[in-house]
């Protein structure tokens, strides 16, 4: 099959490209960074360098493809997250219609249907194509954003410079804390990007007649349990995950200069996770868990942590 992978060589797109090439598919990777071209070719794939803001570029790239893995990178600079998501989605839709692609696998999130203003899944409903929506849980790789704070750096007053999906950490003496507007004994599902990539690779070669939604997770546990696993891997077994109020979380994001629309969306996602609604939806879907456990990822995390 001729398959288009968007997302450059990111956390999901890199292992996805590796898997698809190994399976014998003809893969084109879309990237806005020309410096990635040689690395893409080394994987055995072709590079399409351009912007997802350019519908004509996407149309040309999608021409003749059997399937497309579509994702929209989260932006920390766009002042209006909703407009950015909507415009990028419309460019995808224009390109899919014009190129005649018959199979689309769309990356979403497990809280997407619970975030009222930023859910773009329904915009794909009018396409004459086979569509699967991937709803992965909380990424293991989000923990990388907390490294400086675990090391005791990056504090802003009494609040944390919380980033992607509200994950952050601080170390003060013998008190290690992970913070967000969900945490403590809240149970959530974490997921490895490799397990997401494996699930996407499976879906790309299928042709379901109707739109389907696939949840993806690797391991379910309480936030404090996850904190202990990450903490133990870096020699801080006392690490805890304290839940902030939505108000304090929002103030922390503002202090970190996160655009207001994005900050509000992150608060809404975190609140959905604290409420248990995301976990309830995940359980209803009864997905098969992936292979990579948090303890496995913690070893990789510790290696990166030590290099910082």
Automatic annotation (TrEMBL):
A Pfam cross-reference name: NAD_binding_10
Top-level lineage group: Bacteria
Occurrences of domain NAD(P)-binding (ranges): 7-119
Name the record gives this protein: NAD-dependent dehydratase
Coiled coil: none
Organism: Mucilaginibacter conchicola
InterPro entries according to UniProt: Ergot_Alk_Oxidoreductase, NAD(P)-bd_dom, NAD(P)-bd_dom_sf
Taxonomic lineage from the root: Bacteria, Pseudomonadati, Bacteroidota, Sphingobacteriia, Sphingobacteriales
């Amino acid at each position: 099959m001729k398959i288009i992978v968007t997302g450059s060589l990111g956390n999901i797109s890199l292992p996805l490209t590796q898997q698809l090439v190994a399976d014998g598919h003809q893969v084109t990777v879309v990237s806005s960074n020309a410096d990635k071209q040689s690395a893409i070719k080394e994987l055995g794939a072709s590079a399409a360098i351009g912007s997802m803001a350019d519908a004509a570029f996407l149309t040309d790239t999608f021409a003749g493809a059997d399937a497309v893995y579509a994702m929209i990178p989260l932006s920390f600079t766009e002042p209006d997250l909703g407009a950015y998501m909507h415009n990028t989605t419309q460019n995808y839709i224009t390109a899919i219609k014009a190129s005649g692609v018959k199979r689309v696998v769309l990356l979403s999130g497990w809280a997407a249907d619970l975030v009222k203003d930023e859910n773009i899944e329904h915009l794909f409903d009018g396409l004459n194509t086979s569509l699967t929506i991937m709803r992965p849980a909380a990424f293991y790789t989000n923990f990388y954003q907390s490294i400086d704070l675990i090391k005791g750096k990056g504090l802003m007053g009494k609040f944390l410079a919380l980033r992607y999906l509200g994950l952050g950490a601080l170390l003060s003496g013998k008190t290690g804390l992970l913070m967000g507007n969900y945490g403590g004994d809240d149970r959530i599902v974490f997921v490895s990007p490799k397990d997401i990539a494996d699930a996407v690779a499976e879906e790309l070669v299928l042709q379901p007649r109707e739109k389907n939604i696939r949840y993806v997770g690797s391991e379910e546990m309480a936030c404090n349990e996850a904190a202990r696993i990450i903490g133990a891997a870096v020699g801080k077994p006392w690490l805890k995950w304290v839940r902030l109020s939505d108000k304090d979380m929002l103030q922390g994001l503002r202090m970190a200069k996160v655009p207001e629309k994005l900050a509000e969306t992150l608060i809404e996602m975190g609140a959905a996770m604290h409420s248990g609604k995301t976990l309830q939806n995940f359980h209803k879907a009864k997905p098969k868990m992936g292979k990579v456990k948090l303890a496995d990822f913690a070893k990789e995390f510790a290696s990166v942590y030590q290099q910082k």
